[in-house]
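Hi L.,

As promised, Tat pathway signal sequence:
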Amino acid sequence: MYPIKYEAVDSSDAEVSEHDATDSSNLNYEIEESPGNKGLPMKREKLLLWLNGLIFCISLYLLFVTVILTRRNNDDLNDLLRMTSEYSPIFDRIDIPLVTKKMNATLLEPDPSPIYRRPPSPEVDEAWNRLANIKPIVISRSDVIQLGRDPSVAAKWPESFGFGSDAYIGRIDMFHQIHCLDWLRREANFDHYYGKKWPPGTPPSDMHRTHVSHCIYLLLQNLMCNANVDIYTHYWADAQLNAFPDFSVNHKCRDFDAILKWQEDNSVDVDLFAAIRKPPQYEAKIMSHRFKELFGWFDSHPDNGSDSGEIG
């Protein structure tokens, strides 16, 4: 065995050595911690970049959605109306705004009285005739099919009218309803409109009574179909013991003026329509005996009096 040698160490050297060791450990600590100190700002910068990118993507998405919705609203203002209506090609031809209107529904005639409430006159008749515009319009074969009708049966416009070979005869039902209301208005002023034709004590024709019955029932069905649930209130009047109804309520209405203008610009004259006759390739529907009686069909077809008919 070799003897262990111990060397004397100066106390001052020991202090220095201890101090050096302390400095060395501090240096190592700073060296090891330095990458971490630099990494924190880098991580923050990356996080901020990710957040900025995310915010930009969200903003871009919201902008895209806004543009799409705006274009959709501009392209088709009738989405809500389509949801509450059967198919109609009119929705593809005109934008129909929804407007809030307060009904003028006072019991007494206002001053000035609306022309539609005035007694019969040429001016009143002209105003009602404009609203009861039952002129026909042009629809396509596709329209006929989407309306649930058979194109092989539906009547077409003659090609001589210039509408092409795929043009069918259609009408807007609303104007027929107004026509029926006007018919009832005339019935309420029977002597003025029909007194010369049917003086007092002379019953009107069977066709006239049937027409009135048709109109009353048609309007009833349309009122029930629309089923308006708007509410009217009541107020106390000094001339009534009970609360009096206030019928002048607000309704959400389709812009009638817009539809009427389109009808006036695109409909075909009724006289031209009345001159159209059935083409030979079409098979006529067999109408009922009652229908033929009303229209005097047997007068011009005396040999067909036994025909029982099918519809009408």
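Residues 86-299 form one domain.

Thanks again for sending the construct details.

K.
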